[in-house]
Amino acid sequence: MVNEGAGGPRSRRGSHKVVPSSDQDGTGAERATGEVPCPSNGTVEVEHIISTKLQLKKKAEHLKADLMRQFDTQVNEFMDSLIEESASLVSSHVSTVFPLSDKEKSKLRHTRPPQGQSKQFVIRRSLLDDLFEVNHIRTIYHMFIALLILFIFSTLVVDFIDEGRLVLEFDLLVYAFGQFPLVVVTWMCMFLSTLVVPYILLSVWASVYPTSSHRALWTVLAGSLLLLYQGLCLGFLPTYVVLKNGLPPASCFILILEQVRLIMKAHSFIRENVPRVQSLERSKTNSLAVPRFTQYIYFLFAPTLIYRDNYPRNPCIRWGYVATQFSQVLGCLFYAYYIFVRLCIPQFRSISMQLFDLRAMVLCVFNSILPGVLVLFLAFFAFLHCWLNAFAEMLRFGDRMFYKDWWNSTSFANYYRTWNVVVHDWLYYYVYRDFLWMTQKRFRAAAMLVVFTVSAVVHEYVLAICFGFFYPVLFCIFMCFGMVFNFILNDRRKGPIWNVIMWTALFLGQGVLICLYSQEWYAQRFCPIQEPSFIDLLKPRSWTCSP
User: Fold this and answer.
1) Residue 99: inside a domain, yes or no?
2) Where does the chain cross the membrane (predicted)?
3) In the chain, what is the greatest distance between 2 CA atoms, to the nearest angstrom?
4) How many distinct structural domains can be found in the chain?
């Protein structure tokens, strides 16, 4: 009986295994829908099986998406807590090695925002480096390369038909980067002055401040000298060289963007080290407060605008990776050349010969969306990914988060935070947070307005100097539409439709910028004014130009 009872279950399990697959599917369908399918000739209907499987597959995909979102959120929270915990351990270790008195701690709290809330640097790769390891994403990269090949091929064919020969002169690039030796000399002067003046001013002030009885006087004197240097040497002289010599656009962009970068670097260096000196007792020296000169040199080249004495470093330099990034920058440069030659110059040269007309304006904006979006992608990829990663690799700089997944943004608030993390960090810590600290966190809306204003003014200043005319299109977009979209399309907006709205507005904005600035560029050349008044300099020439 024992053998018989043992054999009974085995025989039943064996009989279960030989059930035909159609019966198994039918049983699954009954469990999923609660209905018994009508048999046809003793078999389950194929259509019902297929629809049931599709429903189950759809449910599994939704479940997978929900699980992945939960997992991603938990991982991000874990990493943030880990970074904060490591930062607190580092700060506690530093306070153990260099103990501060209660008076010093109180003074340090009142001279700057809490250090626990400052930016933390960790070793991490750029997002595109991770995404390019996925074949699906790399295919999009290959599509852009194929589009470049078509641009090159079409340009060569058209030039051969028009000229009867292959034209490989690249005259637009030669013009855009004209007077390059003057650019190099001017940049060397700017860099060397930034290398010497802020460091010497900080060192002299730090040597006097702890033991002086006139601390406020020394602080005002050193601050005034720093502002005078930044206003004259970094502010006025590069702009004067650009305007006096009539540098072409690309050369202008190099000098003016470097001017802005060095001013931001010098401010961060002073801003991070002054509170450290102010926290010292009168009897102590500045040996621990002022960083080494080599640390300052490293910061001037590092792809960040936030000063730290030390950054996380990678163990080695991949020179092949560096060569790849610089070659991609060069490729993006030629890509932009063919975009302007094929899509922009023929269109705007003919449009600029017409009077300002609403119909022509609407057509111009929509025809400019494609080149505007391509230029946006190229600027992002060439500078924020390739250029910064190349310098980060040469310096073994570990934190490569120069941008985040801005393309997934469902709000303009998130887009502003993720598009350019390097500049956003500087604006957040030295404009937004310092403004809140000075106002005791009472005017958050005003702090946001100050950030938008600073960003809009600097962007418009760069474009006005480099293009040679004042046409505040970008300023209006920043201060009007940018502010409105920042509050309307905020972080509470979720879902794919908001990402579509964000991309639509971004595409339209790029079309407006390319159209209006290109029209004004040609109007300035076709309708010059010999002795323009101040009003003529402020009034757009494209509104009245009729060559």
Assistant:
1) no
2) 140-161, 181-205, 217-241, 319-340, 361-392, 412-431, 443-463, 469-488, 500-519
3) 118
4) 2
Composition of the chain by helix, strand, coil, percent to 5: 75, 0, 25
| Alpha-carbon span 484 to 490, nearest angstrom | 10
* 460-511: pLDDT as tens digits: 999 999 998 888 888 888 777 777 777 776 667 777 888 898 899 899 999 9
Enumerate the active-site residues: 459
CA angle 420, 377, 160 (to 5 degrees): 150
**175 and 294 both lie in a single domain:** yes
Distance set, CA 6 to CA 11, 18, 34, 192 (Å): 9, 20, 34, 91
> Of 249, 280, 301, which marks where a domain is finished?
301
Q: Which residue has the higher pLDDT, 160 or 139?
A: 139
Structural contact between residues 504 and 412, judged by C-beta atoms closer than 8 angstroms: no
Domain with 436 in it: 403-546
Cα–Cα distance, 401 to 383 (Å, whole number)? 13
One-character DSSP codes across 416-475: HHHH-HHHHHHHIIIIIHHHHHHTTT--HHHHHHHHHHHHHHHHHHHHHHHHTS---HHH
Least confident of 108-122, 138-152, 221-235, 315-329: 108-122
Q: What is the pTM of this model?
A: 0.75
Q: Which residues pair with 397 in a beta bridge?
A: 313
Strand-pair partners of 412: none
**Of the candidate ranges 130-139, 140-149, 280-289, 493-502, the one whose mean pLDDT is the lowest:** 280-289
Nearest partner of 128 among 319, 400, 347, 327, judged by Cα: 400
C-alpha to C-alpha distances, 40 to 10, 23, 53, 54, 521, nearest whole angstrom = 32, 13, 19, 21, 76
Domain presence at residue 482 = yes
Q: Note whether 251 and 176 are within 8 A (CB).
A: yes
In angstroms, how far is the first alpha carbon of the chain from the final one?
Answer: 111
DSSP 8-state symbol, 42: T
In a domain, 272, yes or no: yes
Tokens of 472: 């505040």
Select from 279, 301, 323 the last residue of a domain. 301
For 239-266, give the DSSP string.
HHHHHHHT--HHHHHHHHHHHHHHHHHH
Tens-place pLDDT, residues 168-227: 777 888 888 988 999 999 999 999 999 999 999 998 888 887 776 777 888 889 889 999
- Assess if residue 494 is contained within a domain: yes
- Whether the CB-CB separation of 505 and 372 falls below 8 Å is answered with no
Label residues 391-428 b or e (16+ Cβ within 10 Å = b). Answer: ebbbbebbbbbbbbebbebbbbbbbbbbbbbbbbbbbb
